Amino acid sequence: MNFSRGRAIALLAGPALLPCCAFDASRVRVGSKNFTESFLIAEIYAQALENAGMRVERIFNLGSTQIAMAAMRRGNIDLYPEYTGTALIDVLHRAPISDAREAYRVVAQVFEQRYGIIWLPPSPMNDSQGLATTREISAKRHLLTLSDVAAAASHLRLATIQEFLARPDGLPGLQRAYGGFQFASVRTYDIALKYRALLDGNADVASAFTTDGAIASDELVVLRDDKHFWSAYNVAPVVRRAALTARPQIARVLNAVSPAITDSAARRMNAEIETGQQDPADVAAAFLKSRHGAEPKT
Asked: CA 143, 274, 76, 298 torsion: positive or negative?
């Protein structure tokens, strides 16, 4: 995460997890995990609630999914943005589900029954895995789908992160699902540098997350997962039932915001933070203003 170093340090030095406590109706505690997009979406949720007249406490930079979930279950935060695929695989330890509606149905049902946590309706934004290439290579090599890449892989160079080579939903999974995918060469990079390798002509294909800010560039395209291999990772507000019971307007406010968070909007905002070095709070405020204007106080 390379946005606003000063803000990141401040967040790291911020409040630790609060002691276990019941819901405090005087404020809504919004959490986030520790990467750019989680900060951004949490800021959108927090500012939307503030625009509706609610007092919000931000408890950001919680770290991993497991830490965020522990904070929810202990009542240290009231809501945070989570991804359906992450919840399904990393929390419930279930097999990936590529159908977005089915993935949402499963996590919503099990989270409410097991944890008393409610999944509000998800955004269209699906931050799934993907493979990207340049528009020039796509046109020259006739690469539009993952099936195209599987067939042509022996003539292609892959730039990726180390994790992608070992995860069952990374390269090994692609080889099982599509066959082929035996690349001429594979080199590993830091997350941001794999895109640089692609643009500098040192690779033909790069692993990606589909809402990465780098993909907002007109130079890159995401190749279509034509066999629907990867799980759906739609983002949604997950909220403690106690908070919704005490403040049912939380659902009304967040349900009005979620439909506007699309793949293209997320890519643009991630790019503004990661490349443009803008603060997530400023990007979130501009997004809400552009979509909704000034929200009336309630």
From this structure: negative
Q: At what angle do helices 36-51 and 263-274 cross, to 10 degrees?
A: 110
Contact between 81 and 39 under an 8 Å Cβ cutoff? The reply is: no
Residue type, 171: L
Q: What is the pLDDT of residue 292?
A: 60
DSSP 80-109: EEEEHHHIIIIIS-------HHHHHHHHHH
- To the nearest 5 percent, what fractions of the chain are helix, strand and coil? 45, 15, 35
pTM of the predicted protein model: 0.80
Strand extents, DSSP E, the chain: 28-31, 56-59, 79-83, 117-119, 129-134, 157-160, 185-188, 205-209, 220-222, 235-240
Which residue is listed with tokens 């990374």?
A: 170
CA 15, 21, 25, 28 torsion-angle sign: positive
- Distance separating alpha carbons of residues 126 and 224, to the nearest angstrom: 13
Share above pLDDT 90 across residues of the chain, in percent, rounded to a whole number: 67
Residue length, the chain? Answer: 298
- List the end-to-end C-alpha distance of the chain, in Å, as a whole number: 35
- Give the C-alpha separation, 240 to 18, whole Å: 16
Give the type of residue at 161: I
Q: Which of 78 and 212 is assigned the larger pLDDT?
A: 78
* DSSP-based three-state secondary structure for 287: helix
The secondary structure of residue 39, as a DSSP letter, is: H
Q: Are 34 and 63 in contact (CB under 8 A)?
A: yes
Q: What is the rounded distance in angstroms from the CA atom of residue 250 to the CA atom of residue 253?
A: 5
pLDDT (average), residues 9-37: 66
Three-class SS of 2-19:
CCCHHHHHHHHCCCCCCC
Residue 92's CB is within 10 A of a number of other CB atoms, namely 14
